[in-house]
Design brief:
This protein is α/β, with parallel strands linked by helices. It contains 9 helices and 18 strands. It has 3 domains: 5-126 and 172-214, 3-Layer(aba) Sandwich (Rossmann fold); 222-304, no CATH class; 309-387, Elongation Factor Tu (Ef-tu), domain 3 (Beta Barrel), CATH 2.40.30. The protein has helices at 14-25, 50-65, 75-91, 98-117, 163-167, 178-187, 209-214, 232-235, 242-246, and strands spanning 5-9, 29-36, 69-73, 122-124, 129-136, 139-146, 169-170, 222-226, 257-262, 285-291, 296-301, 309-316, 320-322, 333-338, 346-353, 356-366, 373-378, 381-387. The relative contact order is 0.13.
Length: 389
């Protein structure tokens, strides 16, 4: 691709490092850009400075590859678009996904705009997903496909991208296995070859989400109510319509017994097991629901508790997003879907309604959390997504 300029988001990890190398091999003019997205010292967990370490590794990779490198400070945009939204959602008792938001709002929006202003034809990332072109009524459409490594497929994290963003994006490692990526990095003597994958917030590094939230949201004591597995509400016949199947269980303190206290309902999410600090049960307790108005958490014993499961979810029209707008339909459509990263795809049906869509699964799904993203697929192509209501 002689003459085509690509700006790679070098994160300081092995995946983006190898992405840059492969693009060079393909003949692109490659520039490395490190995104500094956070430098609030009030939420660091230690004296370490993870973004500085990552930036240094990215710079060493760029030097090894012989490509230009610079750092861009996007912390202001990151705070406005990701962090503030995240806090607002948690305070409402919802569970946002910062990684999906970071891709939609930062990597493939702000970062893409910067890349284009620098004369780039494309941006590239180290995501494990693939892109294909297809013709629809003589118009070029871009397909977002799962990564070849089924254990690392990251198409879910990109489920909010649109056609304009995909048109300008390359995924150089999408057809590789993780082991192949590390092997290439080692063969090329890249410092990131054996570096562990980041487990922190998107582009924040070693800051974990619970610690991040507790340093920004107020601690507020409340009750933990355990709801018995045999509660009569679970035995009641539920409707079979999409609306009925998507209906959530509603709880009050009289539905169970108090078994402990917590530091704030907004710190917990449906399906959560860790952090409850309540013992004395045969099986672990799981969060069934949170009520931020009364600051109450409702829990149930065991991962098979009926209160954890629902067959359907609702997505309001303003939160429905089609990667492939040509596939949007007003008719019920069979798809495969997931409600969290790495969850196996499950058979489901999309039921369009006047004010949104219902996603009805063939089998009940555990821990459907409001604020998270549901993504739907046709075979290995992610065609749309939405924020769970």
């Amino acid at each position: 691709m002689q003459g085509k300029r690509v700006i790679v988001g070098l994160s300081g990890g092995v995946d983006s490092s190898v992405a840059a190398y492969l693009l060079l091999q393909q003949g692109y003019e490659v520039i490395g850009l490190f995104m500094k997205n956070w430098h609030d010292d009030s939420v660091t967990l230690s004296d370490e400075c993870p973004w500085l370490e990552d930036s240094n590794d990215a710079m060493l990779v760029a030097d090894k590859l012989g490509i230009p490198f610079q750092t861009v400070d996007l912390s202001e945009q990151y705070k406005a678009r990701i962090v503030d939204y995240m806090f607002a959602e948690y305070q409402r008792g919802r569970t946002p996904n910062p990684d999906v938001l970071c891709n939609r709002e930062i990597k493939f929006d702000v970062f893409l705009d910067i890349a284009i202003s620098l004369g780039a034809d494309f941006v590239a990332t180290g995501h494990y997903c693939q892109k294909e072109e297809t013709l629809v009524s003589n118009n070029t459409m871009y397909r977002l496909l799962a990564g070849a490594d089924v254990n690392k497929d990251q198409s879910y994290f990109l489920c909010q991208l649109n056609q304009a963003q995909l048109a300008k994006t390359l995924f150089p490692i999408g057809g590789l296995q993780k082991s192949e990526v590390r092997k290439i990095a080692a063969e090329q003597g890249l410092i990131t070859a054996e570096k562990r994958d980041s487990q922190g917030l998107c582009f924040i590094g070693k800051v974990s989400l619970p610690d991040f939230l507790q340093q920004k949201l107020a601690v507020k004591k409340g009750d933990i109510i355990q709801v018995p597995n045999s509660h009569p509400m679970y035995a009641e016949s539920r409707e079979t319509s999409p609306e009925g199947l998507a209906k959530k269980y509603t709880y009050s303190p009289t539905d169970g017994i108090k078994v402990g206290t917590h530091n704030g309902a907004h710190f917990f999410t449906v399906g959560q097991r860790k952090g409850l600090a309540v013992g004395g049960t045969v099986e672990p307790l799981f969060v069934l629901a949170t009520d931020v108005e009364t600051n109450t958490i409702y829990v149930g014993e065991g991962k098979d508790h009926p209160g954890l499961y629902r067959r359907a979810l609702w997505i309001a029209q303003e939160d429905v997003h089609w990667i492939r707008p040509d596939l949007a339909t007003e008719q019920p459509t069979r798809v495969q879907a997931r409600i969290r990263y790495r969850q196996p795809l499950a058979a489901a049906t999309l039921h369009p309604a006047t004010e949104g869509v219902f996603l009805v699964f063939d089998a009940p799904q555990s821990a459907i959390a409001a604020g998270q993203f549901a993504a739907w697929y046709l075979e290995n192509e992610c065609i749309g997504s939405g924020v769970i209501g």
